[in-house]
Amino acid sequence: MTPTPEHTSPSVEGKAVLVTGGSRGIGLAIAEAFVRAGADVCVTARKQNELDEALGHLAKVGGGRAVAYAGSVGEPEQVEAAVAYAMAEFGRVDVLVNNAATNPAFGPLMDVSIGAWRKTFQVNLEGPLLFAQACWRAWMREHGGVILNISTEGTYGVAPMIGAYEAGKAALAHLTRQLAGELAPGVRVNSISPGLVKTQMARAIWEPDEARAASGIPLGRIGMPDDIGAAALWLASDAAQWITGADLIVDGGSRVRAAATGTGGASDKGGIVANLREAGR
Question: What's the CA gap between 128 and 131, in Å, rounded?
Answer without folding.
Answer: 5
